[in-house]
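Record 1 of the preview.
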Amino acid sequence: MKNKKISKMAINLRRIRSCYWYTFLEILAVKNKYFHDLLINWRKPVFLEEIKMADITDKDNVLLIGCGVFPTETMIIAEETKANVVGIDNSPKAVKLANKFLKNKKLSEKIKIEYGDGANYPVKDFDKIFIAINVWPIDSVLDNLSKNMKTSASVMCRGMKSDIDDLLIKNKISNDFNLESSVKRTKTESYMLIKK
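->
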């Protein structure tokens, strides 16, 4: 039991650190074209790969948990698939800045950004659910999804340093989800999870 707690704590500490790092970069991106283009070019190949893995169609309702200040993934999903996209973040400031950014880009009609926490957000109406790399505590979010998402829905969860592998192998989420596919990159991984 002690190893499980240490593992969960280490995973969430990495995610907390990345949350602050990404927030800093995203604030720069919404205020500066250079950082905007840099983040888009850095993130887009990963997001396109995940969209393909998730097999999103224009009929899907998509939720992104942890959309942040610069809701890149919500924009790319909406533009590439024409799906209905909702992004949530548990920071009211991030939601306010994201909505302002989308309004300035004339994307606020296509994408809805709301205040919400993945640990208790209602997920039953979504077909595809994406979890950002900086969402924490990840185990609480996955617990909410396992209990409340529809059985036909799928989850795309991004991880780092094999944190999702650790949760699947060492913790109870392996009882709730099957790993359908995964892609490992130099610094991140993407996991397509299906409810058991």
